[in-house]
Design a protein that fits this description.
With about 160 residues, this protein is of the alpha+beta class. It is built from five helices and nine strands, in the order H-E-E-E-E-E-H-H-E-H-E-H-E-E. Helix 4 (about 90-105) packs parallel to helix 5.
C-alpha cells in the first residue's frame, strides 16, 4: 500500500533526486515524465524523480525557481566538462546522473566527459549509463589530438 502513494502521476510536484529544482508533472509516457519547470518543459525518467509537497513547490518558487535570473545564473555556472579520472566505477553513476540531468534541464547541447584511457572501465560504465537517456543523440570519442578514447563527447537533442 505504501508504494501506491509514492507513485508519480500527472499533476504531482516532483524534484530530481539530489537536486533542489522542483517541477510539476504535465504528462507521463512510459517510463518518462514531462515536467513543467518555470517556463521550461523537460522529459525525465520517472525513477530519477521524487514527489514533493505543494508547499515545497511554492517555497521553491520564491527564489529557487528555474526561470529568469536563477536559470541564467545556473546556465552560466554549469560546466559542460566533467573529469571522472581516478574515481571508482560505482562512484561515477550518481555523479554522472546528476550532471547529465542538470545539463538536460539547462538545455546544454554538448558535454565532454574525461574518464582517461586506463583499462577502459570508466569509459564503459559511462557509455552504458548514457544509453539510458533518450535525450542523448550521440556519444563518441574525442579527436585523437584532444584525448581520443580517454574523452567521451555527448550531444544532447
Amino acid at each position: 500500500a505504501q508504494a501506491k502513494s509514492d507513485e508519480i502521476k500527472v499533476g504531482d510536484f516532483v524534484q530530481l533526486k539530489g537536486q533542489d529544482t522542483v517541477g510539476q508533472v504535465v504528462n507521463i509516457k512510459g517510463k518518462d515524465a514531462e515536467l513543467s519547470i518555470g517556463e521550461l518543459t523537460s522529459f525525465v525518467r520517472l525513477n530519477r524523480l521524487e514527489k514533493v509537497t505543494r508547499k515545497a513547490y511554492k517555497e521553491q518558487g520564491k527564489g529557487k525557481s528555474f526561470s529568469g535570473y536563477d536559470y541564467v545564473s545556473k546556465q552560466s555556472e554549469f560546466n559542460s566538462r566533467i573529469d571522472l579520472r581516478g574515481m571508482r566505477a560505482e562512484e561515477v553513476i550518481p555523479k554522472l546522473s546528476t550532471w547529465v540531468d542538470e545539463a538536460i534541464m539547462l538545455g546544454v547541447n554538448e558535454l565532454q566527459i574525461v574518464h582517461g584511457k586506463g583499462n577502459g572501465v570508466l569509459r564503459q560504465v559511462t557509455r552504458d549509463h548514457l544509453k539510458s537517456y533518450r535525450e542523448i543523440s550521440s556519444v563518441r570519442d574525442e579527436h585523437a589530438d584532444r584525448g581520443g578514447a580517454g574523452v567521451t563527447l555527448v550531444s544532447i537533442n
